[in-house]
Amino acid sequence: MYVLTAKRFLSLLMAGSLTALSLSACSSSGSSGNGGTPVTLSEVAHSIFYAPQYAAIELGYFEEEGINLTLVNAGGADKVMTSLISGDAQIGFMGSEASIYVYQEGSEDPAVNFAQLTQRAGNFLVGRQAEENFDWASLKGRKVLGGRAGGRPEKDETKAHIKSIHGLAIV
């Protein structure tokens, strides 16, 4: 189980803040009416792994640095890439696959991948009822929804992990 320590939380928070600050300094859109630089960040999905970013937004850290951050949940890497290409967003949080596809199509101005935000997938096993003595074998023959809209369910790493670690082939 991954534990987010205070040191890691602060490191992630600082990295996100510095990234947004450095990117906003390069923005050609200028400043907004209240003196800050408008930056739209399009994310592939809400994730617990982005908690430091959400905290920084809510605590006003971006505003303190002169960044008027607008967070948009695009609901899929394809939609994040579309928002970047169209200029609706200046930063996109997604995996590298969408930028690779755009590059392979011969884009004259491809997206640039510049940071890895997480080391693990943001997948969790959640049930409708609590199970006092949960056992992975109880999933055998049951349907497990993996992924999200806009994702790649045929490449579902959650199911692959369950199979490799626990020997279960689940639907």
Written description of the protein model:
This protein is 35% helix and 10% strand. The protein has 171 residues and is α/β, with parallel strands linked by helices. The chain folds into 2 domains: 99 residues, Rossmann fold (3-Layer(aba) Sandwich), CATH 3.40.50; 49 residues, no CATH class. Helix 1 crosses helix 2. The longest helix is centred in the first third of the chain and has 20 residues. The radius of gyration is 19 Å and the shape is flat. About 8% of the residues have low confidence. Keywords: Signal.
CATH architecture of the largest domain: 3-Layer(aba) Sandwich
> What's the total number of strands?
3
Beta-strand percentage range? 5-15%
The radius of gyration computed from the alpha-carbon positions, rounded to a whole number of angstroms, is 19 Å
Write down the oligomeric state: single chain
Distance from N terminus to C terminus (CA atoms, Å) equals 24 Å
CATH top level label of the largest domain: Alpha Beta
Major sheet characteristics: 3 strands, parallel
CATH topology (fold) name of the largest domain: Rossmann fold
Domain SsuA/THI5-like: 51-144
InterPro entries: SsuA/THI5 (IPR015168)
Subcellular location: Periplasm
Organism: Enterocloster alcoholdehydrogenati
